[in-house]
Amino acid sequence: MAKDLRAFLRQLRDDELVEVDRAVKPHEFEVTALLKQLEDRRQYPAVMFRNPTDMYGGKSPFSLLVNAYAERERCATMLGVDPATPNWEVSLAFARKSNEALDSVVVASGAAPVHENVWRGKDADVGRLPMVRHFEMDFGPVITMTHVMRSLEGHYNVSFAKTFYKWDPHEMVVSLHTRDNTRIVREHEKAGKPTRIVNVLGHHPAFHLGTVARNEWGANDYATLGAFVGEPLRLTPSVTWGDEFMVPADAELIIEGELPPGKRDLCDPFGEVARLYQAQCLRPVLEVKAITFRRGAIMQDIFSGFRDSCPFGSVLKEGHLWNVLHEKFPNLHQISSPDSSCGVYAAYVSMKDIQPGQAQEIGRLILETFIVIQCVIVVDADIDVFDEKQVLWAFHTYTNLEKGFQTNGNWERQRHVRHAGEGSGKAPQSGFATSNWGARAVIDATRPQDFAFGLRSEVPQEVLERMKLEDYLPGAATSAHKIPVGAK
Amino acid sequence: MERIFWVDCPECSERFYCNYAELRHAGIKLLCPSCHARFLPDEAAALDERESEPTGSPAPAP
Q: Which of A2, A89, A399, B8 maximizes the CB count within 10 A of its CB?
């Protein structure tokens, strides 16, 4: 049995996956309206909408799954980590898997679940999908999942990019923004060739999470994603290009299409992962060639800018920074990119026995490694970086604002991302950059060591371990925020 | 920092914003997300294209 989305869903507890049977109109904000209310109640189940409408108002043939990533416990399950340890252990698992690769295996089209149904030509109508319009100022309904492209050299790149509905059954617009897929489009256009593209709308959640791993140009992302899923990916020839372009055999639903050279259209605004709208811009047009899907296919969507999208920024930063920094800083303890920054703009770092100057040094390297991070707060190892209250306590208590707070408007490697939709200018990335100022900060919030300074109050650890809450206050030990909101 | 400009749709008066470098003077009609009207930036009912102050300059003395 392959590791696919259905296998993952079977692993979840009843309170981790809830189902909505009533009809909802995703393109009229009805899905995000429900998710926002759950989030306001601090409830974060994965939600399966069994009867969403399509773009024509009729019943879509597909179910819609949103919020799968909204709890780190579920991210732990995705990556094969004990969900009882959802914080640093998940970061380390991401770090390990980023460095691994499993060669994919090929299965015949007839054995590929994603080819159980094939729509081509006029039947390949993207209007039948339950696309979500998320936010009030959004351009329109959009697909939020990953794309596969293949470079002219032959390697596969898998990255997130939004695909916008154009009120046209066979054309969409792809809001490309990552370095590698932008390069692939540029190289194809230079050669006068269309760029082949496959939008993967449902797979094991680790497949999508692994796509944010920072691979070098030329790496085969399918091999990396096998490591994330935990077994070699099964690939099968696409229905459009055969074995010249392989697609994930165990995906739920995919769109095969091409980006004709130089063809652009408008897309955005869209409420991005940093909780700001991306500005309207020009991006490549996707001409749909085929839609293929499993029986009872489930389409995934990400509730962008809310808890559902945070792990794509936070777990990536935590894991990648560990890989980059832990040899240079053997006393590096843990790293967290908090939800309050949407997993985008901030990093909290804890250090054991920190040495003079280390806070600024590690902070500078973090800012150079991730150009979107605006603020690094460095704390001691007794501060839990996954508990923001503790980090802010250290900041309010320990930071000498005269010495421990450094900003700099001239950090190396300022934003230089180029889009496929742009000319040769060095324009910064949309959305994220809307609030990404030139100056960035490193805050030393470690306890002063160079003069007599007070001590943080603590209850003795031995007594904490001896006095079990459930022995004295039965029921008080249950987690308050995990209230079932429905039933499978 | 990316420069944007806000427009008020001449048809429905709803506001949205666009990438300045790509769309302000490109002669391309914008698309209103609310009513799908197409219009050039200079046809907007209102336009806000103020730029931010340059970053990285020293803070003024208190």
A: A399
pLDDT, tens only, B13-62 = 999 999 999 999 999 999 999 999 999 999 999 999 987 665 444 444 44
The answer to whether the CB atoms of B55 and A437 lie below 8 A apart is yes
CA angle A470, A472, A478 (to 5 degrees): 30
DSSP bridge pairs for A63: A298
Nearest to A137 among B22, B28, B33 (CB): B33
Q: What is the pLDDT of residue A474?
A: 85
Task: Give the Cα separation of A150 and B21 in Å (integer).
Answer: 29
Question: Which residues have a Cβ under 8 Å from the Cβ of A100 and sit 6 or more positions away?
Answer: A224, A227
Nearest partner of A433 among A283, A276, A313, A267, judged by Cα: A276
List chain B residues with CB under 8 Å of A430.
2, 19
Is A61 in a helix, a strand, or coil? coil
Contact between A44 and A70 (Cβ < 8 Å): yes
Q: Residue B31 and residue A422: Cβ atoms within 8 Å?
A: no
Please answer whether residues A174 and A284 qualify as being in contact, where contact means their C-beta atoms are separated by less than 8 angstroms. yes
- pLDDT tens, A320-329? 999 999 999 9
Choosing among A29, A134, A280, which should be mutated to test the B contact, i.e. which has the most B CBs within 10 A?
A280
Residues in chain B: 62
Three-state DSSP at A201 gives strand
pTM for the predicted model, two decimal places:
0.91
- The amino acid that residue B46 corresponds to is A
Q: Rounded to a whole number, what is the distance in angstroms from the first to the last CA of chain B?
A: 26
CB A293 within 8 A of CB A128: no
**C-alpha–C-alpha distance, residues A377 and A385, integer Å:** 9
Tokens of A437: 């100022």
Rounded CA separation A57/A55 (Å): 6
Q: For residue B56, which residues of chain A lie inside 8 Å, CB to CB?
A: 409-410, 438-439
Domains of chain A, earliest start first = 5-301 (2.30.110.10), 326-444 (3.40.1670.10)
ipTM of the modeled complex: 0.90
